[in-house]
Amino acid sequence: MSTDDAIRAADAAHDQARAELEALVRIPSISADPDRFGDVAHSAGATVELLRAHGLENVRVAGVEGSQPFVIGEWMHAGPDRPTVLLYAHHDVQPPGIVENWNSNRFEPEVRNGRLFGRGAADDKAGAVAHAHAVGAWLRTVGELPCNVRVLIEGEEEIGSPTLHAFLTAHVDQLRSDVMVLADAGNWDVGVPGLTYSLRGLAAADIELRALDGPQHSGMTGGAVPDPVMALASLLASLVDEHGDPAFEGSFAGLRAPTPGERAPIAGFDDRLDAFARTVGMRPGVRHAGDPTSTLHERLWLRPSLTVIGFDGHPIRGSSNQIVARAAARVSMRLGPGQDPEQVLAGLRAHAEQRVPFGLEFEFRALEAAPAWETDPTGPAFDAARRALSAGFGVEPVLMGVGGSIPFVGPFADAFGGIPALLMGPDDPGANIHGENESLHLADFGSLIRSEVVLFEELAAISGELRAKR
């Protein structure tokens, strides 16, 4: 009955949860933009107040030298015979992208057709609010939680968690847990929850070519002075094959071959390429990329991919007849299981350096790097998560991989002896995270909170199995 009371309390507070999420979305906490570091700090402070308001204790901003602000807190009164659950989310967000492509102000949340639009609405400020409300629902009704809880809301996930190792080392005792719940993943579809068991890795680098001290008139010097933009475009094109797959030496190095079970087509997904194309907004006539002999889920979850996520030359607006002095591109790769990010980056650098046209000056700057993560989604903790998601959404969850990356997962699980990592979250295929018009399905947001309320009781019920791993 106490679980039922907490569920009813969570449902009754749905409008409050939305209002608190909207307040966080209004803070442009873009961790990749130095001009927004003050906003990231503001977001951390607002997250502290959110967690305190819902009964978390010892809530504070934490960090290490050079880090963006993390937020940590706890409620540790269930007793030593009950498991300790770490709740993870992040409060930093991606840049807004092309502002003109938003249908509303990206930092002024707006509800349309049952979805809340705004940067960070789904990725991942909704995760932070969901954690707060799941805890608060128990404390408001029962007065206690069935398990101990620690909370970590990260401030630099969107830039690859560069200080994560140092942070975990410095705060290991304050974060020690038996299982972690990450609300930074997503659902199989609207109304159908997902439980994620694999994530791709990440490797990124900036490549810059320079031809001149400064720009030159394209009529006076064109034909004799090489164009850095054309040179860089040629170099970038050489990184992939005719299918758009990475093609430089070492791009597939270390990739673990999928098992027959992992390769088996997924009905309703691999056989519906057209539905996937519509969901992500591919234009009519555009063909899918990737090896056509591989399934869609292999391309998205299990194989490396390469994307140019930024390009500097000269904007069309304000352009003139000139050859620019330099051109630069930011290349981002997603990596499959078994791949070493540093090895892949070394291969990328060697390939680029050997193919610089016209002897242009070459600069390569390695950026974020994190390996893929995968786990066996069986055992008591995953069974508990499946039961909780089924109770919260009213349908069975789907075990799924995700093509994105969460650098936090592997290091934290390893730091505490391979504790179970339960990945669920507020995203769905139409959430458009990292793109323009990011949005959160509000009904599923409520179902996620409800699921987490139940999950606390489910994890408490398997205390013996979780504590045996200590």
Summarize the model shown.
The protein has helices at 2-12, 14-25, 37-53, 125-141, 164-170, 172-175, 218-221, 228-237, 260-263, 273-280, 296-302, 341-354, 380-393, 409-415, 442-461, 463-467, and strands spanning 57-62, 70-75, 84-90, 110-112, 115-117, 148-154, 179-183, 194-199, 201-210, 216-217, 305-312, 322-323, 326-335, 361-370, 373-374, 398-402, 421-424, 439-441.
What does this molecule look like?
- The longest helix has 20 residues, at 442-461.
- This protein has helices spanning 2-12, 14-25, 37-53, 125-141, 164-170, 172-175, 218-221, 228-237, 260-263, 273-280, 296-302, 341-354, 380-393, 409-415, 442-461, 463-467, and strands spanning 57-62, 70-75, 84-90, 110-112, 115-117, 148-154, 179-183, 194-199, 201-210, 216-217, 305-312, 322-323, 326-335, 361-370, 373-374, 398-402, 421-424, 439-441.
- Helices cover 34% and strands 21% of the residues.
- A hairpin with a 2-residue loop joins strand 4 and strand 5.
- It has 470 residues and is an alpha+beta fold.
- It folds into 2 domains: 2-199 and 372-467, 3-Layer(aba) Sandwich (Aminopeptidase), CATH 3.40.630.10; 201-255 and 303-369, Alpha-Beta Plaits.
- Helix 2 (14-25) packs antiparallel against helix 4.
- It is globular, with a radius of gyration of 23 Å.
- The protein has a 6-stranded mixed sheet, covered by helices on one side. Strands 11-13-9-14 form a 4-stranded antiparallel sheet.
- The mean pLDDT is 95.
